[in-house]
Each structure stands twice: as C-alpha cells, then as structure tokens.
Design brief:
This protein is α/β, with parallel strands linked by helices. The chain has eight helices and ten strands. The protein has a seven-stranded mixed beta sheet with strand order 3-2-1-4-5-6-7, sandwiched between helices. A three-stranded antiparallel beta sheet has the order 8-10-9. Helix 6 crosses helix 7.
Length: about 240
C-alpha cells in the first residue's frame, strides 16, 4: 500500500480526532507522518456534518486512510455541533483507558480545555492545525505541528520550556530574518524591514512567546544586536554588534 504510515513506537496507542470544519483534508498524510513519531494510531475519527457539500472531499481520504466519519448534525440552524461531538468522544476514550494519547486536529481555541484535561491525566496531547491557532491551544499540547508551515517553524511546547529557552531554540530564525532583510550587504536594517522578514518565516509570531513585548526587545534579548532610534519618530535601526 503506497500510503502506509510506519509507526516508530507501536507500544503507544494514539487517538487522532479531526474537526473537519477546522482542518485541511490535503494534509491528512502529513498528519499521519507527524503522529507516527509518537505512536500507532489505533483510533482515527473525523467529525463533521456530512450533509454539507463542502465536506465531501474528506470522504475518499477517510476511506483510503481508514478513518471513521462521525456524523455531527446541527440541531439548530447555524449552530455547529462538531466540537461537542469530538469532545464527548475524547472524554469517553480518556476514561476507557484504550489509548495512551491524543492528537487533536483543529485550529480552534475551543479545544484548549480538552487538551488541558487530557494533559492533567498525564497523557500525551498533540495538536495539528494552521498558524492562526491561538497560543492557548498550542501551549496546552506537548507538541503542536503547523499544517501550513515547514518543519523549521513547527512549535514544540513542553512544561519545561521557558520564554528564554524558546528564544534560544528559535534564535536561528531571527538571525535568518536579519540576513534576509539585509540582503544588500548592509550592516543595519530598520525594525519594520525585520518585521516583514520574520513574518515570512513565522507568520503569526508573538513577542510574548519569548518574554518580550516588541520585536525590538527580542533582538536586544538575543545579545548580538543593537536597537538604535533614528530622527524619524517611531523608526528604529537594528545593527549587528561588531
């Protein structure tokens, strides 16, 4: 089978729960490759209102990758019951003892409390979604993988990580942003140029993730740059220390 996903740890049983309203069907193979690093997917379910034409593209991949399609019909017009259905199943699985961990596939902050509750039981919690995912959900997972970013910009969150350790781990991205912004060989660039450069590498980066309030504070914290004010109000130059 060409799309068979090998598991690196078959002793760890995982439940992969996908919110079809808040996930990309085109990333299902990459999702399974990601979870295979942690264990074997023994429960694979996709939740949605399958009467919606917009969700029809999930049906063939679900068959190919052996996912169950779980119907979540709305009982009131305009209301989405997908998240409630997914949470109920997750809690049933949590208390059944049939799995060792979960991967919640969504970009919706509504799953933050679910991730926290699973984590409180000492179980593995993985997340998979787009870079628009709120930090509250991201930080509730042991690891959160961005479906619309490259491997170099996936975010790992553990209880042992601090803002300083996160900056140390991702300092190379800020260095790369500086090099990209100064591609003309100049030794200094404006802070706004750096802002545009870093957003290409980390589209939804937030300074507070690194214990800072601004991008300028991040570069100062790196220790190899100087932030110099200019004669123009609000404009700053970032220089690499010699």
């Amino acid at each position: 089978m060409k799309n068979k996903i090998p598991s690196n740890n078959k002793n760890v049983k995982l439940a992969i729960l996908i919110d079809a309203d808040n996930a990309s069907v085109s990333k299902i193979h990459e999702l399974l490759v990601f979870t295979a690093h942690y264990g074997q997917a023994t429960v694979k379910r996709i939740y949605g209102d399958w009467s919606k034409p917009a969700l029809s593209s999930w049906k063939e991949p679900a068959r190919e990758y052996s996912f169950r399609l779980i119907e979540a019909l709305p009982y009131v017009k305009g209301k989405n019951t997908t998240d409630i259905s997914l949470v109920i199943d997750a809690m049933d699985l949590l208390h059944s003892g049939s799995v060792d961990g979960f991967c919640i596939v969504s970009s919706d902050s509504d799953y933050t409390l679910l991730a926290q509750r699973i984590r409180e039981e000492g179980m593995l919690v993985l997340g998979y979604g787009e870079n628009k995912t709120p930090e509250s959900f991201i930080n509730s997972c042991k690891e959160f993988k961005f479906s619309d970013k490259t491997d170099t910009t996936s975010i790992k969150s553990t209880n042992n990580e601090t803002p300083d350790s996160m900056l140390k781990k991702e300092a190379h991205l800020f260095e790369k942003a500086y090099n990209n912004a100064s591609n003309d060989g100049k030794s200094e660039v404006t802070l706004s140029q750096l802002g545009m450069a870093i957003k290409k590498l980390l589209p939804k980066y937030k300074p507070r993730r690194y214990g800072c309030k601004t991008l300028g504070e991040i570069y100062e914290k790196l220790g190899t740059y100087l932030i110099v004010p200019t004669d123009v109000k609000g404009m700053y130059i970032v220089e690499r220390k010699s």
